Amino acid sequence: MDGRDWGTFLLPYEQTVEELKVKFKTMRSELKKREEYTPIEFVTGRVKRLSSILEKAQRLNVKMEDLETGIEDIAGIRIMCQFVEDIRRVAEYIRARKDLEVLYEKDYITNYKESGYRSFHMIIKYPVQTALGQKIVLAEIQIRTLAMNFWATIEHSLNYKYRESLPDEMRIRLKTAAEAASILDSEMSSIREEILEAQKTFEENSNMTTQVLKAIHQLYFYHLVNEAIESQERFNVIWQTQDMEAMKELLDHVRELLSGAKKDSLPDGL
Ligand SMILES: Nc1nc2c(ncn2[C@@H]2O[C@H](COP(=O)(O)OP(=O)(O)OP(=O)(O)O)[C@@H](O)[C@H]2O)c(=O)[nH]1
Ligand SMILES: Nc1ncnc2c1ncn2[C@@H]1O[C@H](COP(=O)(O)OP(=O)(O)OP(=O)(O)O)[C@@H](O)[C@H]1O
């Protein structure tokens, strides 16, 4: 091992992790304010411990002088999402950023690892402004769902690096647990789709109801009193049954009455 000052070596990585955490936490709160929904649930980050850097360098045959390029995750952040679909959205936001450059991506969701591990990884180049000037460092961004994170956290604590020494039975059970987490993600996504669909239908129905009531009210302005009363009675019946097809027909009918009345009320010659 060389005699470099390891504390100083890690400084730009520490700054990178702090800056990236702030940036993605800010993105979370901004999106929440703008769109009421944010694809980012929470963000964590860490600088790899020296012992882990050295162990990985040995494992990957990276020379000491090549650590900065050979170990890509000395600085790492992790973005947790509620739904699998959110992961693609977050990746899009990252690709569009001007303050970093995506070097490459690893899609362990489509191509999950032998262990069962699922996540979306991006390796980025990040320019960090140090007291000595700009330094470009590599950093890893892991994007995953809460379920993927639950699995990976537990599997990590069971020491994924030494998986080779795990009994086969344990390996298989961990893989089965990863499948279960993936099924949970799919199920939550489909429930979410249905909830969004139901919310949309509710919104459309409530808009139509408002339009019908406004249109009936307008009939009085054109002295179509009988038509207004008859339409209101039809509305009352439809409202009880919540038959939105019939509501649409009523809306069309009242609109026809209104456009006829508007034509009749135009001055001669127009
Ligand atoms: N818990 C868990 N995490 C994993 C697993 N595979 C990868 N990871 C995480 O993803 C990171 C990147 O892994 P890889 O894409 O395989 O890249 P790598 O750094 O060349 O490979 P490693 O030697 O596994 O670190 C790792 O440093 C871990 O944080 C796994 O099977 N289980
Ligand atoms: N990109 C990341 N963002 C946030 N936390 C991470 C990231 N990568 C790893 N961690 C976490 O940091 C802790 C220490 O892990 P470590 O630095 O040994 O890295 P590892 O990625 O798990 O392993 P490897 O040596 O294979 O890269 C673990 O709790 C791990 O889950």
Automatic annotation (TrEMBL):
SMART domains in the record: RelA_SpoT
Pathways involved: Purine metabolism; ppGpp biosynthesis; ppGpp from GTP: step 1/2
Pfam families in UniProt: RelA_SpoT
RelA/SpoT domain location: 45-166
InterPro entries linked to this entry: GTP_Pyrophosphokinase, NT_sf, RelA_SpoT
PANTHER family: GTP PYROPHOSPHOKINASE YJBM (PTHR47837), GTP PYROPHOSPHOKINASE YWAC (PTHR47837:SF2)
Name this polypeptide is given: GTP pyrophosphokinase family protein
Organism: Paenibacillus tianjinensis
